[in-house]
Design a protein that fits this description.
7-stranded mixed beta barrel; 34% helix; alpha/beta; iron
């Protein structure tokens, strides 16, 4: 479609908008390249606005999308002005953003695709070609590991879900279904799906993504703007709607200083996470800049961005720079031509970071890498961190302290105890602090190979220096996956780890949960004889006292290379900075600094050997696909053949009575409160994702389908069945409903005075034609975004929620389902208005509803009060008028 043509809500002409000249056509230029011939792009130099130069890089991505997608309806010229005036408009203006693509994982993908399949059915019944229903925004659906394991173990239980996904892959355009047994969703996003620069409709533009998981932010580490959204928001984007967001505050994090030679990627990530958590950046965008960023590899950056939920930021953005391009040279199949275009384009629109240009560094907060030093955690709890340089002193203090989290209470005269013992014919000595267990475990380090490579390179240098690990120390290597073994082999370091005793013992939970091979009897006897505080060192995530072995009292979590180092030293009572690890065959002292691999050495091995090999393997697996997926049969039809016996996939009733009419808002008359709730009602209260209780309404339904409790599975697994999910709405045993005065998934059916399951009460109200509302306190809908927390109430007949405040994503979900989010005016609440929750409510909704309009609520007791309708823009009002985003789009396709 021409850039200057009409741009409708669906990037087509189905909504019938009149043709308009694009308001920013004069900002479009042409990029010349041999590969792309002529591609148009937004040229900021034509903007001639000095404010663009001052925008953070992440805001420039927002601006580019807003200019390119401006249609005068969903995305307006005011949005462009607000972004350019970002510093004055932050936390105030609402803007619309159209990402380049959508990322779904299997559990959230099922309800989204079921909705599209149901929309096809509804339109086909109206005589409309069902093939018109497709995602408008390119969408990747990853059937990742959570479903893959189930499939192999219980084929029958998951076969129908996989067959549905297979049908989707063939029936819908603009969706890419990645089958199981390939990789997890975020690894695929990083390693295969991301493009940095996208092309479409004759344009090139920055890649961007919204995904149905909070850790979608990993992609920010590669210079791609992305964050997690809820299920209904993702469906809206799939159907061509932009994401609405309050223009965020952008906090700059300046990285300066030099990384300590002994600090690993784990130390860096945890240090930056701690800094940002203390900075109080909840809900903000973070952008990294400064000379220290050049010391962070691409995997380092993605790991930091992955920690966004830990420090409560929305985005952690690393602009594209030379290191990013170097990373893509190893991961792209056609890197030579494409990377030249990529670099030229990003420089043309000033999205390429050059750290030699000081003008690109606005003054924000600062993070000094020199302050990050290597730590271990222990001896009993993970939160007790100890700097490696202070390890010896701290261990001695632990011997002196009274028995507790940091103490063993060993008397002064016994602290020097040494116990000789024989092992395999040789004599050794054990003392307090002696290492007897050393386990390199990668389960917590899988997304960043650098720390495992550092351990392997250190082992290589140790062998070359003539160092060994004492044979009585129980050493082991437990990779988190076969991929780890693959890259340790490819880089050539695995044989050196084996020579030090770190053999691959298997894949799975081992040392952390106490699955350690028994210590030699002579070692155990020596520990008991001297009442010694022996030590274990591991790179896992659990190390409670006695967990590794009942005779090992001190256990430390450390990075993989430090595990190898302490194993060589044979003790934790050592200052690794000033004392030698051991003596070589020539009697010469060897220090840790002599064998510690430099960060440049690790990065070179990672980028030039490991990543290239890993990506070749991934591309091969993507091309071959999954054998059982390839053999899976599915229907060859535009409409999905719903199986009435299925308890996993069911056609939802969202589109019942679909017609072109009924597009004016109807007042809500004589509604009863289904529930009267307090503060901080979470989405877990509204729509639980866990197991299905045997006495619940959902259980009764499944039992009617002849399923046993063992076959119930979870609500999360049954998100494709509206009958189960509606019965699971408000099914939390922790729900506190003021109508009944006790905890549980029950409510009062007010006309009869009976206490019923919430679903049964809602069903009775719907039979009687009575509309429903919900009364609530502050922060209604907080917690994880969950689409069924809005879909379930909608199918129960809830028309409005009146609360003191709403969590923003959940508010968006309510609007997306056609439920009115109504907020008490400041200073008012159900209690201040003396509402008991048993009244009937009439809410007058005008024909010409506008955003943030005050509405009058009349109560059958004679009183009335005003509420604020939390529709933030015209788009919200349009969705509400049509009964939600799904009906809105479906009606646009009706003749």
């Amino acid at each position: 479609m021409s850039f200057n043509a009409c741009v409708s809500a669906l990037n087509g002409c189905e909504l019938g908008l009149s043709a308009l000249k694009h308001p920013f056509g004069h900002l479009i230029d042409t990029l010349q390249s041999e590969q792309y011939e002529e591609r148009r792009y937004f040229n900021p130099q034509k903007l001639r606005d000095v404010r663009y130069e001052k925008l953070p890089f992440c805001m420039r991505v927002l601006l580019e999308s807003t200019i390119r997608k401006c249609d005068g309806f969903y995305i307006k010229t005011d949005d462009v002005s607000s972004i350019l005036d970002w510093q004055k408009q932050q936390n105030q203006a609402e803007v619309a953003f159209s990402p380049a693509r959508v990322l779904l994982q299997d559990f959230t993908g099922i309800p989204a695709m079921v909705d599209l399949a149901a929309m096809r059915d509804a339109l086909a019944k109206q005589g409309v070609d069902p093939n018109l229903v497709n995602p408008r925004c390119p969408t990747d659906l990853i059937v990742d590991h959570s479903l893959q394991i189930d499939y192999k173990i219980e084929l029958i239980r998951n076969k129908e879900r996989l067959q549905f996904f297979k049908w989707c892959s063939k029936a819908f355009k603009n969706i890419n279904v990645v089958p199981p047994d390939i990789n997890t969703v975020h690894q695929l996003n990083l390693e295969y799906l991301c493009q940095v620069v996208q092309e479409g409709e004759g344009f090139i533009y920055p890649d961007s993504v919204v995904g149905t998981d909070s850790h979608t932010t990993m992609i920010n580490g590669l210079g791609i703007l992305g964050w997690g959204v809820g299920g209904i928001e993702s469906e809206a984007v799939m159907l061509g709607q932009p994401v609405s967001l309050t223009l965020p505050q952008v906090v700059g994090c300046k990285i300066v200083g030099t990384i300590s030679p002994l600090a690993t990627s784990i130390d860096i990530v945890l240090g930056i996470t701690k800094h940002l958590r203390q900075a109080g950046i909840g809900g903000k965008f973070v952008e990294f800049f400064g000379p220290g960023v050049q010391q962070l590899s691409a995997p380092d950056r993605t790991t930091i961005a992955n920690m966004c939920p830990e420090y409560n930021a929305t985005v952690s953005f690393f602009p594209v720079d030379d290191i990013t391009l170097q990373h893509f040279k190893h991961t792209s199949t056609d890197h030579t031509e494409k990377l030249v275009v990529l670099e030229d384009y990003l420089k043309a629109i000033k999205l390429f970071r050059s750290y030699s240009d000081q003008s690109e560094e606005p003054q924000y907060s600062e993070m000094n890498l020199s302050s990050i030093v290597p730590h271990v955690s222990g001896p009993k709890r993970p939160q007790d961190r100890v700097a490696v340089t202070c390890m010896k002193e701290d261990f001695i203090n632990c011997l002196n302290e009274k028995v507790g989290f940091k103490g063993f209470h060993i008397s002064k005269e016994k602290q020097a105890t040494q116990v000789p013992f024989l092992h395999e014919g040789a004599e050794y000595n054990l003392a307090h602090g002696s290492v007897v267990i050393a386990a390199v475990i990668s389960c917590t380090n899988n997304c960043n190979p650098s720390v495992m490579l550092a351990a392997g390179l250190l082992a290589k240098k140790a062998i070359e220096a003539g160092l060994k690990v004492k044979p009585y120390i129980r050493t082991s290597l437990v990779p988190g996956s076969g991929t780890v073994t693959h890259y340790l082999n490819t880089s050539g370091v695995l044989p050196y780890l084996r020579k030090l005793g770190f053999e691959v013992v298997g894949y799975g939970c081992a040392t952390c949960v106490g699955n350690t091979a028994p210590l030699p009897e002579s070692v155990v006897d020596a520990i008991k004889q001297g009442d010694l505080v022996a030590c274990g060192v591991l790179s896992g995530n659990r190390h409670l006292e006695g967990r590794l072995c009942d005779c090992v009292r001190a256990n430390y979590l450390a990075s993989p290379p430090l595990v190898v180092a302490y194993a060589i030293a044979g003790t934790v009572s050592i200052n690794l900075e000033t004392e030698p690890l051991g003596v070589n065959s020539e009697g010469k002292d060897v220090y840790l600094r002599d064998i510690w691999p430099s960060k440049e050495e690790v990065n070179h091995t990672e980028e030039n050997i490991v990543i290239d090999s890993m990506f070749k393997e991934l591309r091969s697996r993507m091309e071959k696909g999954s054998s059982f997926w390839n053999s899976l049969e599915s229907a060859e039809s535009a409409l999905f053949p719903w199986d009435p016996k299925s308890t996993y996939i069911r056609c939802p009733s969202f589109f019942n009575k679909l017609s072109k009419e009924a597009c004016t808002p109807q007042s809500i008359e004589g509604a009863y409160p289904l529930l009267f709730l307090g503060d901080k009602v979470t989405t877990d209260h509204i729509s639980p994702a866990g197991s299905i209780a045997r006495v619940s309404a959902a259980a009764k339904y499944l039992q009617s389908k002849r399923l046993t409790p063992r076959e119930f599975n979870s609500y999360g697994a049954r998100r494709g069945n509206d009958a189960v999910m509606t019965r699971g709405t408000f099914a939390s045993i922790k729900l506190q409903n003021r109508l009944i005065g006790k905890t549980g998934p029950r409510t009062l059916h007010i006309p009869s005075g009976q206490t019923l399951d919430v679903f049964e009460a809602a069903e009775r109200y719907q039979r009687d034609g009575v509309p429903l509302i919900i009364l609530a306190g502050k922060e209604y809908g907080s917690g994880s975004s969950r689409d069924w927390a809005a879909k379930g109430p909608y199918l129960m007949g809830v028309r409005a929620v009146i609360a003191e405040s709403f969590e923003k994503i959940h508010r968006n979900h309510l609007v997306g389902m056609g439920i009115a989010p109504l907020q008490f005016l400041p200073g008012q609440s159900a209690d201040s208005l003396e509402l008991c929750g048993k009244e009937r409510f009439t809410i007058n909704i005008p024909q010409e509803l506008i955003p943030r309009q005050q509405l009058i609520v009349q109560v059958d007791t004679g009183k009335s009060f005003s509420v604020m309708a939390l529709f933030e823009n015209d788009m919200d009002v349009a969705f509400f008028r049509h009964g939600g985003i799904l009906k809105y789009v479906a009606r646009s396709l009706l003749p």
